[in-house]
């Protein structure tokens, strides 16, 4: 491999890659541009720029799907689910590592084994279980389901990380009179920050974009998340492309902004999460 | 409270919450899926009858399930190859000292952060409207067809969108592995007279085996679980030709109320997926070299 030598071949390759990247961007570009057009403009030409960038479609869609409410639902579900997963998984992993034995082993092994169960195997009885526990069709219900689904990967990653942290720090704090809670929250939790970031990013992307679980457990208007609202809107306005594209633009902009600002952490988190998983 | 009692109490407080949600949301539904698969129930009525192996016998003869199984296998095979080949090639190029490498990495990775349902709708617009327009302008027959309503084309439209959506993810993992290949090792090989191909074959590829294990696993398991795009882009159509196993089970359970049959299919699905991925990972782990 050529390390650092920039020659005519590298330049050619670079231009080729830039062209490829532009082609890659075409679908998103089309979505954004057509969201600003009138219906007639979309029908006449998909690729052309709009005559005037009018915001009317966005205002219409915003009101029709109550975008603010839908957006807040997605935020609440993602945030509370992820925070809950981080808390209960780090606590459990901490004791599972520091108090080894038969019980810890059985618990850890069952949780680890469950990672190979696909969601589709669980979804049919899950709906029944959720009805029995009356956690169906509510935001707090789906949040609790995400706690359950998020725990295995989070415990697995925390478990591996905590094993690498020397016990001495905790023991010193214990001698100073801290209880287990104090040691966990004041000493250990700050040390877990790198892996916590990784887990938070992996789970946020998954929950924010998840479609199948909301589809089968959330049915009322007031509980819709972004993917669910996009599905319903797209179903109703399939041929009114100008509105549909405005809706899809609104659906992708938040996550794209999040990605652009957090890019370094996201790519790092995804790589280290995948390598350990 | 004496000290060992207190220790036990702390253990319970720390472990119980995670264990509780794991049990209720994963363990109980999993066991119930297995129980349902031996029962006969429509999901609504109050009486549930035992059915023995009837559901599994039905699956054995269920042409729709076989069709979706065949589709899914073909889909997994194609995307596993394409995602890994293209992901690796992109990583190789981005590992060179290109001036725009960070920007390129962002561009190729960007689609991955968007949810696949939204992606499906976006591409529905591209396939129906943009393709038609390109077809009109260029008169290339490829663009004049409606990709989503022709069986062969619908399959490839799913493949194209999946590759577009996820290739950046595979690229990022390969890129991290390539950056972990020690420079001095490559230089030593070059001094020993190894050409580009020899270095790739004997130094780089063996060293990035772990990334290959992961990427093959990810492609296989995500391919098997494909649902969102089949739902949003093709609706399993035309004529059920793009109905993935996951979508097939969803339709059985939630639109046809075949609760127990769907559970049996879900159990079969689990066994197949677990079997294939375990074999893949254990075979490839054995071939990895320790650094």
Features:
A: 277 residues; mainly alpha; MetI-like fold; 2 domains; 13 helices; B: 291 residues; two-stranded antiparallel sheet; globular; MetI-like (chain B); MetI-like_sf (chain B)
Task: Explain what this protein looks like in three dimensions.
The complex is a heterodimer of chains A (277) and B (291). Chain A folds into two domains: 1-65 and 237-258, no CATH class; 67-227, MetI-like (MetI-like fold, Orthogonal Bundle). Chain A has 13 helices and no strands. The model of chain A has no long low-confidence stretch (mean pLDDT 89). Chain A is globular. Helix content of chain A is 78%, strand content 0%. By secondary structure, chain A is an all-alpha fold. Helix content of chain B is 76%, strand content 1%. Chain B has one domain (63-287): MetI-like (MetI-like fold), CATH 1.10.3720.10. A two-stranded antiparallel ribbon of chain B has the order 1-2. The radius of gyration of chain B is 24 Å and the shape is globular. The N and C termini of chain B lie far apart (51 Å). The mean pLDDT of chain B is 89. The interface between A and B is large, with 93 and 89 residues. Chain B: This is Sugar ABC transporter permease. Chain B: It is found in: Cell membrane.
Layout of helices and strands:
The complex is a heterodimer of chains A (277) and B (291).
Chain A: H1 8-35, H2 39-44, H3 56-64, H4 67-98, H5 102-113, H6 119-132, H7 139-163, H8 168-175, H9 180-191, H10 193-209, H11 212-217, H12 226-236, H13 241-276
Chain B: H1 3-36, E1 39-40, E2 49-50, H2 54-61, H3 63-94, H4 101-109, H5 116-138, H6 141-144, H7 151-179, H8 183-191, H9 196-207, H10 209-224, H11 228-234, H12 245-254, H13 259-287
Antiparallel strand pairs in B: 1-2
């Amino acid at each position: 491999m050529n390390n650092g030598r920039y020659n005519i071949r590298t330049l050619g390759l670079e231009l080729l890659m830039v062209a490829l990247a532009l082609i890659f961007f075409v679908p998103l570009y089309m979505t954004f541009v057509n969201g600003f057009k009138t219906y007639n403009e979309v029908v006449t030409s998909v690729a052309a720029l709009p005559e005037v960038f009018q915001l009317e479609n966005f205002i219409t869609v915003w009101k029709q799907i109550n975008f603010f409410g839908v957006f807040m639902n997605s935020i609440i579900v993602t945030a509370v689910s992820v925070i809950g997963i981080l808390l209960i998984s780090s606590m459990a992993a901490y004791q599972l590592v520091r108090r080894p034995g038969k019980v810890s082993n059985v618990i850890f092994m069952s949780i680890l084994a469950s990672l190979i169960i696909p969601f589709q195997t669980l979804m049919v009885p899950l709906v029944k279980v959720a009805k029995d526990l009356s956690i169906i069709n509510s935001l707090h219900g789906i949040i609790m389901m995400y706690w359950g689904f998020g725990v295995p990967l989070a415990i697995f990653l925390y478990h591996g990380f905590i094993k690498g942290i020397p016990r001495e720090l905790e023991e010193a704090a214990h001698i100073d009179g801290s209880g287990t809670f104090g040691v966990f929250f004041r000493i250990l939790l700050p040390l877990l920050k790198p892996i916590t970031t990784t887990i938070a990013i992996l789970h946020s992307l998954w929950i924010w974009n998840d479609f199948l679980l909301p589809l089968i457990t959330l049915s009322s208007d007031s509980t819709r998340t972004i993917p669910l609202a996009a599905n319903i809107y797209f179903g109703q306005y399939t041929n009114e492309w100008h509105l549909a594209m405005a809706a899809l633009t609104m659906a992708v902009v938040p996550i794209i902004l999040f990605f652009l600002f957090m890019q370094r952490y996201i790519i790092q988190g995804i790589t280290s999460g995948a390598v350990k998983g | 409270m004496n000290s060992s009692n207190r220790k036990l109490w702390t253990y319970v407080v720390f472990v119980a919450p995670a264990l509780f949600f794991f049990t209720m949301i994963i363990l109980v539904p999993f066991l119930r899926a297995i129980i349902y698969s031996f029962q006969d129930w429509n999901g609504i009525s109050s009486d549930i009858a035992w059915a023995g192996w009837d559901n599994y016998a039905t699956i054995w003869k269920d042409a729709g399930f076989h069709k979706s199984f065949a589709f899914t296998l073909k889909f997994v095979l194609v995307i596993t190859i394409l995602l890994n080949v293209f992901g690796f090639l992109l990583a190789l190029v981005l590992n060179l000292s290109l001036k725009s490498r960070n920007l390129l990495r962002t561009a190729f990775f960007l689609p991955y952060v968007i949810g696949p349902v939204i992606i499906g709708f976006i591409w529905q617009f591209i396939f129906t409207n943009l393709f038609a327009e390109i077809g009109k302008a260029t008169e290339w027959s490829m663009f004049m067809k409606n990709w989503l309503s022709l069986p062969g084309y619908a399959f490839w439209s799913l493949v194209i969108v999946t590759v577009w959506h996820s290739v950046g993810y595979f690229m990022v993992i390969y890129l991290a592995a390539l950056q972990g290949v020690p420079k001095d090792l490559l230089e030593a090989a070059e001094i020993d007279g190894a050409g580009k191909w020899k270095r790739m074959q004997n130094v780089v590829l063996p060293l990035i085996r772990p990334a290959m294990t992961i990427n093959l696993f990810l492609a296989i398991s995500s391919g098997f679980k494909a649902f969102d795009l089949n739902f949003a882009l093709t609706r399993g159509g035309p004529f059920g030709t793009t109905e993935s196993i996951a979508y097939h089970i969803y339709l059985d359970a939630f639109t046809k109320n075949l609760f127990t049959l769907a559970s049996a299919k879900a159990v079969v699905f689990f066994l197949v997926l677990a079997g294939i991925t375990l074999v893949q990972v254990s075979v490839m782990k054995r071939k990895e070299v320790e650094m």
